[in-house]
């Protein structure tokens, strides 16, 4: 185990694997910058965007309802103002616009100080909010026309979660930078900012001029875990597995709309949210579900949603049992209310 002052054979192998996954089996010609966590991958993207755009261009535009991390910069990039207040003042350079609103994005990116647009293909922690393919294609066009980097945060959605290796495949959009983490190494801390040469070549080539680094980022242990995990995801055909089973999960969850306090059901693949009439009711479902042996995640800016993100390797009978417990819990909470 060594710091990244030294090279290793396994790091480049992980980078080549990621490049091949992005290229749908063929080398895409991108470059990879390893980090230790999802927030760090986004921090890397912010710094690279400023370096790439040049002096005076520093603003990153993101969406309300988004979540990008809990460092100072990624917290401000997160489009949930209620999370900002206790930590004010936050770093400058982040503007937020309405989600899935092209006119709002066009207005926010019209200034000379904008460097990049940062979006999640599906908002995760914000309550599982997909946007249309038309929206993302319009975002790509705007970035191209105005000379901006398009950064997609796939820390939540990457590696098969939505039924594609990366969720941006659903929108048929190629970003300039793609940030991944979480599932990359199956629990071992590692993340990556993956970029086109157009973006990545903004970093200096000389190690003596390093503008962004961290002692153990891309270390051999973490990279070995990532390489083994990526091989297993491919062996199991996780993206195809989720794509085949996701519609059945959606059907079971949409059927919950018959309960009076269920307001919305949305998602794709193995990433769904059920929205309830009030955050207090959602919290009750979480607590009662845990008592039944079911782990649930309360989500959304106001806590009115519950996210269901089952393991991508879950067996069909396990998933059916979990959904039965979820429905039983909702029914019991409705009776209590």
Provide a quick synopsis of the model.
By secondary structure, this protein is of the alpha/beta class.
Can you give keywords for this protein?
alpha/beta, 7-stranded mixed beta sheet, 11 helices, 337 residues, 13 strands, globular, 4-stranded antiparallel beta sheet
Order of helices and strands: HEHEHEHEEEHEHEEHHHEEHEEH
Label the overall shape: globular
Query: N- to C-terminal separation?
Result: 55 Å
Low-confidence parts lasting 5 or more residues at pLDDT below 50?
A: none
Rg estimate, integer Å: 20 Å
The biggest beta sheet is recorded as: 7 strands, mixed
Structural class: alpha/beta
Got a strand count?
13
Total DSSP helices: 11
Strand adjacency order, main sheet: 1-9-8-7-4-2-3
Q: What is the average per-residue confidence, as pLDDT, rounded to a whole number? A: 95
Estimated share of beta-strand residues? 15-25%
The portion of residues assigned to helices is 25-40%
